[in-house]
Amino acid sequence: MNNKSKYTQFIKSEAKRLGFLSCGISKAGFLEQEAPRLENWLNQNYNGQMSYMENNFDKRLDPTLLVDGAKSVVSLLLNYYPSEFQNSDSYKISKYAYGQDYHFVIKDKLKELLFSIESYIGAVSGRAFVDSAPVLDKAWAAKSGLGWIGKNSNLLTQKVGSFYFIAELIIDLDLEYDYAVTDHCGTCTACIDACPTEAIVAPYVVDGSKCISYFTIELKENIPSDMKGKFDDWAFGCDTCQDVCPWNRFSKSHNEPLFSPNPELLSMSKKDWIEITEETFKIVFKDSPLKRSKFQGVKRNILFLE
């Protein structure tokens, strides 16, 4: 077995040991197919007030501009599908936000993976990325065979659907590369038909500025009044296009203790949400992604839903 093959197998087995759902590897380089797609998406103003999407355009498309001498993009998936769900009489939050903030959980795993690689191979230079840098996560995951980009613009897999986080290690090491898989959306339009705000404007194209996740998390000003009554009780994020996707029948619950929800969250009713104090919010959502919207942001969303 040559070194390239040996190193590749080691990285994939370590990723599995650390609890990642799957690991795929692609050659670092310019994402030719994504460039016109991203440019067109930005030109349509589908990013709304997410101005950061316009920054670092070149870096988004070429990881060699992020990591000197980058040769491989190691893409990883981490399952977050819960085993228990919110009370049915509740304002809804996205399942990814049930537990601790994934940025910290995954970053720790990536650091350990990089440390293992360096311990096994020697000096390897690289960086870990979790949704906080100009990296097109879904494009790299699809390129490395971890799934295909669905009509709702999420990464989908036949075995486990789409309830997982995507992260990367970009490293200066030559490895064996995986191949993209075929699209299995077929003629299905479940996600397009179900989107409460019609944010999926065409198959594979999402107008981010119409998405409930955008309104409830990214938008800092008041939610437009013409959206009143369209949020289907979503107070933070939205899972509708994933919930209706047939491939998510195969979702299995995660086994990451840090993603387990605070029991109080699961039992909260609409009345509890309306009456929640800042003190209780800080206790129930300690280290939670909801801290991104802060207490005032979540209260704004609840008031809009009433």
UniProtKB/TrEMBL annotation:
Cob(II)alamin binds at residues 60, 131, 152, 155, 166, 213, 238-239. It holds the Pfam family QueG_DUF1730. Binds 2 [4Fe-4S] clusters per monomer. The keyword Metal-binding applies. It is an enzyme of class 1 (oxidoreductase). [4Fe-4S] cluster 2 binds at residues 195, 211, 238, 241. Residues 173-205 form the 4Fe-4S ferredoxin-type domain. SUPFAM superfamilies: alpha-helical ferredoxin. It catalyses: epoxyqueuosine(34) in tRNA + AH2 = queuosine(34) in tRNA + A + H2O. GO terms for cellular component: cytoplasm. PROSITE patterns: 4FE4S_FER_1, 4FE4S_FER_2. GO terms for molecular function: 4 iron, 4 sulfur cluster binding; cobalamin binding; epoxyqueuosine reductase activity; metal ion binding. InterPro entries: 4Fe4S_Fe-S-bd, 4Fe4S_Fe_S_CS, QueG, QueG_DUF1730. Its cofactor is cob(II)alamin; [4Fe-4S] cluster. Keywords: 4Fe-4S, Cobalamin, Cobalt, Cytoplasm, Iron, Iron-sulfur, Metal-binding, Oxidoreductase, Queuosine biosynthesis, tRNA processing. The active site is at 131 (proton donor). Gene3D superfamilies: 3.30.70.20. TRNA binds at residue 220. Its EC number is 1.17.99.6. Pathway: tRNA modification; tRNA-queuosine biosynthesis. It is found in: Cytoplasm. GO terms for biological process: tRNA queuosine(34) biosynthetic process. HAMAP family: QueG. Catalyzes the conversion of epoxyqueuosine (oQ) to queuosine (Q), which is a hypermodified base found in the wobble positions of tRNA(Asp), tRNA(Asn), tRNA(His) and tRNA(Tyr). Belongs to the QueG family. This is Epoxyqueuosine reductase.
